[in-house]
Write a structure and sequence with these properties.
The chain is mainly beta and 95 residues long. It has one domain. Strands 1, 2, 3, 4, 5, 6 and 7 form a seven-stranded antiparallel β-sheet that branches. Strand 6 and strand 7 form a beta hairpin.
């Protein structure tokens, strides 16, 4: 955790040392997380990141929502990201 922001979940490595499992993100204030990357941002984000294997190819499913998020002059309210990144190590495809 960092400030009130938390990442929790369970991950394990498969026989190919690929991570499998689900992470849950609860970040009511992304400011401290942005500061780790030397950036300034405000807002919240919550959701899950699921790492799996589809026929031996690593896949990550991202489901995140935010009530508001901003960086500089760019701002968004009530946003959702639902993305699937297939085979993210060799030939990433995003849907």
């Amino acid at each position: 955790s960092l400030a009130d922001n938390k990442v929790s979940g369970d991950l394990a490595l498969d026989d190919s040392l690929l991570p499998l499992g689900t992470l849950t993100l609860e970040a009511p204030d992304i400011g401290p997380l942005a500061a780790l990357a030397g950036q300034t941002a405000a807002g919240d984000v919550q959701g899950s990141i699921r790492l799996s294997s589809d026929g031996g190819a690593p896949t990550v499913a991202i489901d995140l929502t935010s009530g508001s998020i901003s960086r500089g002059d760019l701002a968004a309210k009530t946003t959702a990201v639902n993305a699937l990144v297939a085979n993210y190590l060799k030939a990433p495809g995003i849907s």
